[in-house]
């Protein structure tokens, strides 16, 4: 049986690794030209009951523990006027509940655990059917089982459902401060070891420390439509002007927040936030399935990567348990995944709704510290 995985993200690589651990070969087809073709973004908090469980099944938990940052769980929650509502500092002996890891480090961990040539770089998915996978360069490959692990804008998804991600009224701009301890030690101390987060007035500013000394700063604008980047007037192609525009949008906010924006370099990344319908399902097919964001893209509140890792691990275990009956294995995996991912998506939707509230900071404080 030939297993083809489209997409070398956390879910696709976790699936390939768990299959490898269980003596089953798979090939991962990735459109990027190489593992270093682009940056992988910021930090991920890996949850004990989902992402960490997947890494245990993959035999990678010890290696993960050696590079994950428990102190990355620290959080400071503030209102726009600078009022500190919550400060959580992680003790040295705290449970390893949601440690942070750089996305690039997690990807390298998974890639390095796979046999050479498991990942075929530069293979952009074009179409599939009748057991043949076709690529943008005219090449093709055969498969018995095709797994779409190709993210939010999955093209494999169309083989199973016509569902498409919808805009959530949320757009964000991502910036960064490299080497913050050397270049801006005062801001480094203010941000701390984890996440520094201010919410209110239909906006949020989050600054998160990465393992390489970079702090990623993201500004979210809620109640905005999918055309916002084209109509808002933000000069994305002029970094200095874009920073000035963002600072102007924070008029009335504490000067500490605008200082973070002023300290950022010239990398400006726009992101529109979308999600698939909560509770999405499809009739099981014997030769194709989905994992991760391809299956259940949800608001970005910390669940997506964890669900993707666990999807990959549990699909790998299901296939290993039924090596002579892949259709039954896929059906069993999907039954469990639909229920689990649906619950995570509903929770993520509730949290996202809190972020859009006028008094978002107070609502998040109540979420973190319920009565």
Give a brief outline of the structure.
By secondary structure, the chain is an alpha/beta fold.
Question: Would you write up a description of this structure?
Answer:
The protein is 35% helix and 23% strand. It is built from 13 helices and 17 strands. β9 (132-135) and β10 (140-142) form a beta hairpin. The N and C termini lie far apart (53 Å). 43% of the residues are buried.
Q: What are the defining features of this structure?
A:
FAD/NAD(P)-binding domain, oxidoreductase, FAD/NAD-bd_sf, 23% strand, cytoplasm, D-Amino Acid Oxidase, Chain A, domain 2, 371 residues, 2 domains, alpha/beta, seven-stranded mixed sheet
Please state the overall shape, judged from the principal axes of the Cα atoms.
globular
Q: How many angstroms separate the termini?
A: 53 Å
Number of beta-strand segments:
17
Widest sheet: strand ordering: 5-4-13-14-15-12-16
What is the average of the pLDDT values? 94
Radius of gyration: 21 Å
Biggest sheet details: 7 strands, mixed
- Name the CATH superfamily assignment of the largest domain: FAD/NAD(P)-binding domain
Number of helix segments?
Answer: 13
Beta content comes to 15-25%
Structural class assignment: alpha/beta
> Would you state the CATH class of the largest domain?
Alpha Beta
Estimate the helix proportion, in percent: 25-40%
CATH topology of the largest domain: FAD/NAD(P)-binding domain
Poorly predicted sequence stretches spanning 5 or more consecutive residues:
none
Number of domains: 2
Per CATH, the architecture of the largest domain is 3-Layer(bba) Sandwich
Q: What series of H and E elements makes up the topology? A: EHEEHHEEEHEEEEEEHHEEEHHHEEHHHH
């Amino acid at each position: 049986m030939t297993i083809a995985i489209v997409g070398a993200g956390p879910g696709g690589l976790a699936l390939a690794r768990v299959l490898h651990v269980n003596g089953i070969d798979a090939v991962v087809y990735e459109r990027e030209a190489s593992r270093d073709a682009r940056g992988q973004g910021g930090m991920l908090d890996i949850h004990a009951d989902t992402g960490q469980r997947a890494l245990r099944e993959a035999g990678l938990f010890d290696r993960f523990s050696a590079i994950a940052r428990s102190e990355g769980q620290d959080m400071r929650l503030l209102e726009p006027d600078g009022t500190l509502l919550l400060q959580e500092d992680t003790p040295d002996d705290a449970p390893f509940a949601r440690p942070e890891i750089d996305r690039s480090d997690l990807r390298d961990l998974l890639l390095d655990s796979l046999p050479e040539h498991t990942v075929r770089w530069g293979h952009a998915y074009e179409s599939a059917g009748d057991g043949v996978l076709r690529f943008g360069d005219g090449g093709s490959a055969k498969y018995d089982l095709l797994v779409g692990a190709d993210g939010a804008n999955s093209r494999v998804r169309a083989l199973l459902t016509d569902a498409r991600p919808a805009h959530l009224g949320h757009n964000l701009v991502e910036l960064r401060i490299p080497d913050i301890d050397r270049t801006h030690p005062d801001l480094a101390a203010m941000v701390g070891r984890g996440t520094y987060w201010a919410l209110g007035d239909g906006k949020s500013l989050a600054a998160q420390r990465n393992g390489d000394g970079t702090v990623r700063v993201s500004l979210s604008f809620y109640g905005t439509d999918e055309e916002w980047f084209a109509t808002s007037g933000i000069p994305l192609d002029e970094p200095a002007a874009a920073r000035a525009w963002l600072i102007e949008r924070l008029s009335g906010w504490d000067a500490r927040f605008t200082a973070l924006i002023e300290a950022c370099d010239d990398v400006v990344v726009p992101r529109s936030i979308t999600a698939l319908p909560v509770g999405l399902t499809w009739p099981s097919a014997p030769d194709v399935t989905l994992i991760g964001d391809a299956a259940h893209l949800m608001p970005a509140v910390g669940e997506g990567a964890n669900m993707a890792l666990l999807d990959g691990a549990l699909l790998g275990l299901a296939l290993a348990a039924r090596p002579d009956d892949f259709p039954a294995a896929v059906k069993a995996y999907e039954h469990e995944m639909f229920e689990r991912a649906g619950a995570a998506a509903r929770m993520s939707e509730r949290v996202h709704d809190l972020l859009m509230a006028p008094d978002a900071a107070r609502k998040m404080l109540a979420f973190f510290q319920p009565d």
